[in-house]
Amino acid sequence: MRRQVQLIRRYTAALGIALAVVVADLVTKRYASVHFADSPVEVIPGFLTFTFTENPGAAFSLFQNAGPFLGVAAIVVSVFVVRSIRVERPLLELVALSLVLGGAVGNLMDRVLRGEGFLDGKVIDWVAMWWIPTFNIADASVTIAVGLLLIHAWRTK
Prior knowledge:
Blueprint: H1 2-35, E1 41-44, E2 48-55, H2 67-84, H3 91-113, E3 123-129, E4 132-135, H4 137-155
Antiparallel strand pairs: 1-2, 2-3, 3-4
Helix pairs in contact: 1-3, 2-3, 3-4
């Protein structure tokens, strides 16, 4: 019984974090499509601009026009992460996996909802920082997750 309660808590926490990422990602993408499409906003001159771009590739504009492949990869990663949550792991790992799940699903939603064919929708990117390619909350979520996993690996070494 105790194991079931722990499993439910892990899934609740992980899916809650992932859902928060997906909602934040979708809301900010919608906001960007309405407010930044015609007029980007330079927040910090030469450093940070809010804009609107459509990306047919991966995070940070990599792998252009590989949408269907990336969509299938997002589904595979999401299934893998959901199954991985069953295993008891440190909180930092659980949070990182949740951020990966949220990021994968956030961009997958664009691929599903914004295209005409199979997973070919373009992902909305809207944060442009000096030399870093334009990105969104989902991309940032996955990047933060990688950072957390690196910190965890370094701390447990």
